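User: Hey, quick favor. My workstation is busy. Could you predict this chain's structure for me?
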Amino acid sequence: MKKKTLTMLLAASCSAMMLAACGNSDANTQADNQQAVTEDEVTTPDNNVQDTTSETATEVASEDTEFYFTEVKQDELQSVDLGKDGTMDNLQTSINELEDGDSELNLQYNDKSLPITDEDGENEGLVFYVHKSDGDYILIDTKGDSWPGNIKLYGWNNEAGSFVKIDELENRELSGNWNDGDFAPQIDANTITISGKLDVFGTHSIDKAFNYGKDGLAPADKYYKVYSAGDEDRDVKALVLKQSLTFYDDNGNATKTLEAGQKVCPYEANDPTDPSEGFKTKGNYMSFMTEDGEFLGHIEYDLKKSEDGNFWYNRDGYTPVVNGIEEDELFEGLIYAG
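Assistant: No problem, here it is.
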């Protein structure tokens, strides 16, 4: 397999505004529960991000009238009523120096603390307090703006008087936008949008809505939305076909065949390494659209162990294969990060 390098300028761009034109009904499932944003803040209807930077706590229109969330920042004391017992509790994050000379980032609440520093010793975590009618929660993104970290969900336990871990997703991060040093996550009373990295037909960013609550984190959507790696505007880069490729609907019927030289844009996909599903080598899914926003359908691909042992997919050296055709023979100029 030929070597691939990170040169994002090699790929042609598909406008994120065209994503809405593909006709999928789930494109705006979260929009009704989020605040309006200006057009220059985000360009894709699927990813409406709230502008929370001017408020200490963010309230979002929702059926849950108690819902709000706020970032818990370093050395900024906040008072909230944990457990709705009428007593105000204090929250803040802080860096604590350890006896061995290292330091760790902790969430301090009342006289207790919750470690945030990840396994690599990074003290860049993002911490959000979330209040809903069914309880109080802490959402932690362990690596902040690194890509990606782990997502941890804690819930308040009144009897214990402490936050108890409910769930964790590895190699994931909160999806949202940075604005003047503040992070605005995509979150409402029912779902949070979580991002990751997909190394299939190049490196892509992916995100998907997850339900969250006392039962943990569970996917609200079947597939991840796909966009260009690290692109805050969630644009999608086009792939150029090296030979003909047929796309299919969900019933297995052929919908369209494109020829060599034509361009396609990834739209939705499963993640073969999804932490909640395990490593999947057969029957993986990716759908595509044209640069003009026409939905083409999907293809299925398998992950084949590379004969030369090159490490182009995951840690185990797999490469995507469509009907026996390796990705390098199917698409031109695939770009991989890392």
